[in-house]
UniProtKB/TrEMBL annotation:
Keyword terms, alphabetized: Membrane, Transmembrane, Transmembrane helix
Xref: InterPro entries: MAPEG-like_dom_sf (IPR023352), Membr-assoc_MAPEG (IPR001129)
Pfam families for this protein: MAPEG (PF01124)
The keyword Hydrolase is assigned to this record: no
Subcellular location, record wording: Membrane
Name of the protein described by the UniProt record: MAPEG family protein
Chain ranges passing through the membrane: 110-127
Gene3D superfamilies associated with the record: Membrane associated eicosanoid/glutathione metabolism-like domain
Length: 128
């Protein structure tokens, strides 16, 4: 399996990391709260709330990234090393995005999100 394809799995796991941060950093998540975790997460504030928001955004961007990697792989016009580098760049952008969200750096977070979108689009461009 290629590095780019492994990046799909990594991108799938990133929202779970954000959920863990949201729940643990709240300091009050227990088994009782796990009966209705969405209601629990919707009532968070501060860092836990930002981690939850990063989780939601990670789930929202995942389908586009996975599709872009698969299209590039199927079409096969792009060099594999290019696909792999783009995959690692996307994962790096998502990690930076999560860090920016947790740190409440809104402007930088938006720029990093835009870079991630550019990387997704790049998969299609290099596949032509």
């Amino acid at each position: 399996m290629t590095v780019a394809l492994w990046c799909i799995l990594i991108a799938l796991c990133l929202p779970l990391l954000c959920a863990l941060i949201a729940k643990v950093s709240s300091g009050r998540f227990g088994m009782k709260d796990n009966h209705d975790p969405r209601a629990f997460l919707d009532n968070l504030e501060g860092l836990p709330r930002r981690a939850h928001s990063a989780q939601q955004n990670s789930f929202e961007t995942f389908p586009a990234f996975a599709a872009a990697v698969l299209v590039a792989d199927i079409v096969g016009n792009a060099e594999q090393v290019t696909q792999d580098v783009l995959g690692v760049m996307y994962i790096t952008s998502r990690l930076l995005y999560i860090i920016c969200y947790l740190a409440d750096w809104a402007a930088l977070r938006s720029l990093v999100w835009l870079a991630g979108l550019g990387i997704i689009i790049s998969f299609f461009v290099v596949s032509v």
